[in-house]
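dumping these here so i dont lose them again. two proteins, back to back, each one seq then C-alpha cells. dont judge the mess
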Amino acid sequence: METRELLTTHVTLAERRQHVERIADEFFDGFEAVEKIDRPAVSVFGSARVKEGSAPYEAARTTAGLFAKAGWAVVTGGGPGVMEGANRGCQEAGGLSVGFNIHLPHEQGSNPYVDIGMTFRHFYARKTMFVKAAEGFCVFPGGFGTADELFESLTLIQTATVTHFPVVLFDSEYWSPLLDWVRTRCVPEGMVAPDDLELLSVTDDPAEAVERVLASWTARNGDT
C-alpha cells in the first residue's frame, strides 16, 4: 500500500504496520547503498525536465566531471535532465556515479549513467540518503522538487541537524529572484536571520562551484 493510500483510505492496523515495516526496510537498504560510496560525495539537484544540450544539463555534466577528477563521487536523483547530466559527467571522467531514483506516476526511469543505484518509493527516505551521502550540495535550475531539496538541506544545516555543508547555487540569473526575495522580504521581516544568507553561495562557473565544496571539506577535514 502506498503512502497516499494510507492518507486517503481507511486501513487496518496490520496494513499500517506493514507499511511502516516497508519504510524501515527502505531506510535500511538506503543506508546500505550509501555505505558503498567509498569517497567524499556531493549531492547534485536540478530539473528532470531539461534536455541534453541545454545549459543546465551541460553545466551539471561539466561540474560533475570536475568533481570526479578531484576524486569525489556524485549523487543525484538518478533520473533524467540535470540528474542525467551530472551522472553522465561523473562517469565520463572516471568517477563514482550514484543515483537514488523514485517511483513516480508520470516519470522517471533511471538514467544509464549510474554505478550505484536504488529506486525508492518514499520521498523522505530518498531525501535522507542525499544528505547522508553528502559533503556538499550543488543546486542547478529546477522546479518544485529542486526547491524542496534545496530548502530541506538549508533547514537541516540552519538547525544544526547536519554538519554545515556548503550549498552552491548554479546560475546566478536563475536564482537571483529567489535570493532577492530572501534579502528584501524574509530578512527585513525577521523570517530569516541575516547570518542565514551565509549558508548559500551562487556561481556561474563549474570550477568555482567545485572549489567551494572542496575548500569547505578541506577546512573540516584537513588535506587527508
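---- next one ----
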Amino acid sequence: MAPRPTWKGYLRLSLVSCPVRLYPATTRSERVSFHLLNPKTHNRIELRPHDPATDQEIPRDQLVRGYEFDKGRYVVVDDAEIEALRIESSETIDLVRFVDDEEIDPIYFATPYYIAPDGEIATETFCVIMEAMREAHKAGIGRVVLSTREHPVLLAPRRRGMLLMTLRSAEEVRDDREIFADLENVKVDQEMVEMARRIIEQKSGPFEAEELTGDRYQAALRELVAGKVHGEKPASPKAAARPTNVVNLMDALKRSLAADEGKGPAPSRKAPRRAAQGRAPGTRRRRSAK
C-alpha cells in the first residue's frame, strides 16, 4: 500500500504549474524499538505532561505552544496563528534555478522524498517538466515549507518519476577548515599512494543498492529479543575485533596488496540490469566527448 503524502501543493516552472504530492522516500518501520518499563512490574511507563510548579497534570489536547523570549517568560502562539502564517512556498515549489546536480556538495543533502502528480489532469504537465529536465541534464532548485520550516530543495528526474531532496541551509553546515587544518602540510610517500590505489582498484566494482540491504546490529537485536521471548538465556557477548594500529605502513600496504591479489570486488547479488533513466541527485554521470 502506498504511503500517505506528507505534503500537497503545486510544482511551478515559470507560468506553468501542476498539483503534486510528496511522499517519504525512506522508512524506519523495520527497526527494533523499545519501550520504557517499570523494572518491578514491567508495566509500560506513561510520560504525562504536568506543571512542575503546581504539580497539576494537563491533558495533551489542552497544551499550547510557547516561545521563550526571556528566561522563564513565554509568548503563546496558537495553532490558528501558525496555520494562517503561510508564504508562497507553503503551497508552491517554484523552480527558480537549474543546475548540474553534481555541482552540489553531498553535505547539503538532507531528506529524500518522491514527488508525483496529484491527479490525472496534472500528469501531462508533470511529465513535460520532468522530460525537459532529463533532456537538459539539469536539476531544479526551489523551496518548500515542511514542518514549520522552509527548506531549499533539489528536484531531479529519477527513473519513471522525480526525486525531491531537501537541502541543508549554508548556516547549518560547519566550516571544516579547523578540523582539517593538520592535514594541509602533510607530505605523503607517492609509492605508498600508488600501492593504496592498486588496493582500491582491486576492490572496485559497480554500485549495487541491494548490497546495502541488511543491518547486522538490528539482526543481532532481533535475535536477542526473540530468544528472550522464548525464555532463552542471552549468549555471552563477543568482543568486536578491533583493527591493530599500523606500525609500518609500507609493510601493511604490501601485505594488503598480496592478500587481495586476484580477489577482486565481492560479486553482485543481482544480475546486471539496464541502467535506469534519470539518477538520484548527487550521482555522477559520464559526459560524452565532444
